[in-house]
Predict the 3D structure of the following.
Amino acid sequence: MNTPETVEVTALAINVTIPEPLRWTDTRRGETFTLSTLNVRLLADGHLAAKAYGRPVGGGRGTYVSFPVPDDPALAALVNGAATRAGALWGAHRGPAAGETRSP
């Protein structure tokens, strides 16, 4: 039987909405995107890594392309705050919902 100490966790990641005032645009493959979501991963060494995702300014779904997160203190604070909040939520989990042991 697995105990919390023997279960191998291979990834921890969260998605975070970027507040409107912190959003930015970036261009990839000739298309401009408005970045509105961060994917934040907890690395094996305990550090955080983040990538940004968004939608084409011109509309449509576009492609699923990641963008680097600019070196901005407000964005760094968002990443840190989101990781801390996610840790608190994970730490307070109440186990699977009745009848739920699979992904939603």
Notes: The two ends are 24 Å apart (CA to CA). Residues 25 and 34 are 4 Å apart (CA to CA).
